[in-house]
Amino acid sequence: MTERKTISVMFVCLGNICRSPLAHFIFETLVSKKQLKEYIKIESSGTAGYHIGEKADERSIAVAKAHGVEVKHRAKQLKASDLQKFDYVLPMDQSNYKDIMGLTSRPIKAEIIKMRCFEFSSQPITNENSLDVPDPYYGNEDGFEEIYQLLEKCCVNLLDYILKEKNIAND
Ligand code: 4NP
User: Are residues 18 and 60 in contact, defined by beta-carbon separation less than 8 angstroms?
Assistant: First the structure.
């Protein structure tokens, strides 16, 4: 088999307990199904440090489980150095995007693309035009199911985008 460079993907929200862990493990499940786990390294983090070391919100764990996705995760905070390390950084909303852009004034390695840029197509719309993945933290379980459905669509299109960009066969 030809040598492949590892691709790295970081999902980001505010607390790293609701949205980004869901996106992380939905995406990881898709990557595993394509037998690409060895080549695509996936993490998630929060722009805030409120929940560092905590497990994902139990409502995120439950909705994922209902769809056959296991969320095994401890929250961590995004670091400026992550922007030099990761190939793709996916903020969930405009506030996350702004916070990420404010972390460093240096040129960064990562492509930073808001998650909902991928809602309808594997060709992302611009960050300026994309909507937010709403924060379900203060809502009820229904909100988590809606977020799951939205993130799943975005993850499918994001994976297509990455595979195309990196010239990896998608079968
Ligand atoms: P997340 O949701 O950013 O999707 O993980 C939140 C979790 C916790 C808080 C806010 C949003 N909080 O304020 O503690």
Answer: yes
